[in-house]
Amino acid sequence: MAPTQTTVPCQYRTGKTLGSGTYAVVKEAVHTKTGKYYACKVISKKLMEGREHMVRNEIAVLKKVSSGHKNIVTLHDYFETAHNLYLCFDLCTGGELFDRICAKGQYYEADAAQLVRTILGAVEYIHHAGIVHRDLKPENLLFRTKAEDADIMIADFGLSRVMDENKHILLTEICGTPGYMAPEIFKKIGHGKPVDIWAMGVISYFLLCGYTPFDRDTPREEMQAIFTFSFRLICYCPLAQYWEGVSETARDFVRTCLTIDPALRPTAAKALQHAWISAKTPHFVPDPMSSTGLPMDLLPQMRKAFDAKKTFRKAVLSMMAVKRMSMGAVSPTTPHLLAAELHQFKLSAEEEQTHENSEVIFHHLHGKESERSRPPTPLLPERESKSLPRMF
């Protein structure tokens, strides 16, 4: 029995826009009965025509992992109107990863190791569930609240896939954000869970020095740097100053994750056993200015190494460029669509306001566990829709 669908009055009232992605906008939404706030991903049906499988896949992935791990965002509800599809997630108000680091008064190698350990633990969980994320990057790592001890959350499973371990089928499409994509993705030789470990290597690199190993002036140059594996090595002389406060154990962890051969790259479980993040006593380089052997503060060098806004903007533009390239191979009209109509479709999706008097098709997520793990019902032909056109 598939999850049930019901046409009902809308239980959510949407509000201000929180952000925007390639195919969707994210709005704040409040549940009208409980008063609880959520982040609501609003997807234009018109924009997703011919790509409905992308949304179905994201929901299928989230239904396998939602509520199963405290460091993974939960999909609470999804429903649709005549024009849009709405996915309601945890509202993470604590900000992005690097914003939090920059706002700290001090930042040590042990802090970086703790962050990597937490994120990698969540990656191990989704891998154990048979899922590869494929878009791990700082922008998709959010803090639940502004509290000092707030949980960090992995978000945005739009490019994730459920891997059939029994069929041993690898993925071949190009997707992700260039600076964090593993070389096998560009080579189109087939990829799977190891691409997430590569991304963790890039994230760890950034957490330790403040710049990414494949940072270049353009997305194309980034791709070429990864494809040829000509990244800026830790021992690269002009940048050596940024690694003076980083231990050799931490450097070894990064090198291990950035192993060119995916078959030799560690699994998430194996990476968690690495001495840098498993040792009870933190690894660090003593501060030469301290007579007591305290660890060096990495924050001053990190602040010098990157301009956060420039980095975030560049990552978003890179992601859009790669998705345009990938989707262009599917349909020759896609580049024209993205150039001429993307903004209008997203604007229309953003302008629609849901409230108590709106009628929506509500897709029930909750029930027996066996039902929660099933994929959404197939796309229905337009002629079968009696009231609202359905995507599922």
UniProtKB/TrEMBL annotation:
Organism: Hydnum rufescens UP504
Alphabetized SMART domains for the sequence: S_TKc
Family to which the UniProt record says this protein belongs: Belongs to the protein kinase superfamily.
SUPFAM superfamilies: Protein kinase-like (PK-like)
GO molecular function: ATP binding; protein serine/threonine kinase activity
Transferase among keywords: yes
Highest taxon, organism lineage: Eukaryota
Keyword Transcription recorded: no
InterPro entries: Kinase-like_dom_sf, Prot_kinase_dom, Protein_kinase_ATP_BS, Ser/Thr_kinase_AS
Secretion signal span: none
Pfam family, one: Pkinase
Region feature (Disordered): 365-392
Binding locations of ATP: K41
Protein name: Protein kinase domain-containing protein
The Protein kinase domain, residue ranges: 12-277
Keywords linked to the UniProt accession: ATP-binding, Kinase, Nucleotide-binding, Serine/threonine-protein kinase, Transferase
Lineage: Eukaryota, Fungi, Dikarya, Basidiomycota, Agaricomycotina
Coiled coil: none
Amino acid composition bias (Basic and acidic residues), ranges on this chain: 365-374, 381-392
